[in-house]
Amino acid sequence: MEKKVGNDSKIIGYWMSEKKSQKLKWTEFAGVCRKHGFSLVKMNLDKPLENQGPFTVILHKLTDIIVQTMQGNTKAKAMIEEVEAYIENHPYVAVIDPLDNVRKLLDRYVTYSIIHNSNLEDVDAFIPTFVELTSDDVRTNSLKLRSAGVKYPFVCKPSVGHGSRECHKMMIIFNENGLADCKPPCVAQTFINHNAVLFKLYVVGDKYRVVERPSLKNFYASNQASIHFDSHDVSKPDSTSSLNILDPEDMEKNTTSVSTDPKKLAVIVETVREQLGMSLLGIDVVIENSTGRHA
Q: Quick one: 142 and 186 in the same domain?
């Protein structure tokens, strides 16, 4: 979709799905842009971008299309190549966010590794131990878990973190018998008990907003079968999953509510933004119920 704009107006070229646009109240955002001298133009990735600009800013949510290129989709590959060619030919354009940095964010293991190597420990924040599993062999995976310090129970997550419904399908593995349930490539990460409360940090540049969400209840190593769940179903504001409800014994032990430390959150946001090179992102933070540490 192309729009005519005034000669004195700067153009923000954007691309995201129609569903995402509606969710983000994009019409209101367009009004804010106009007040500041910017015109919002949705890029048509099926046509040359040279005829749709010139863009001052490219703002995008291209994760789904990038994932499709990784899966060999030729149309998606052509779309991404068109965007990258425009950016290369117009180096003055501000891109939110750089495609190479978005690609890193798509890989959970790469993302966790980058943040793990940062200075979060300085503020007593941490990433729970994790390891990437690429084999179907249970013995091999058991050795990798032990070497990486991953404890039971752990969360098993697809390596690809965005771009499809499958990336939200996860498991809680309680014991070595459950290792056979893992579907590589995936990331195994020690589960941190956090009293079923998740804090989502919505980051825009150096600003962020904290929203409290329901989350998974406390789990412990046991002989029980693996639990399969969709992360979208347990962390939405209106989630009603049984997995969100603390067991009676945990309710008795945890009578005080968990709370975040604003200073630690500020360091987490600054560190993650800097390490990943992102201006727009979401960060999930939980408070370990036994220590009060931010994870």
A: yes
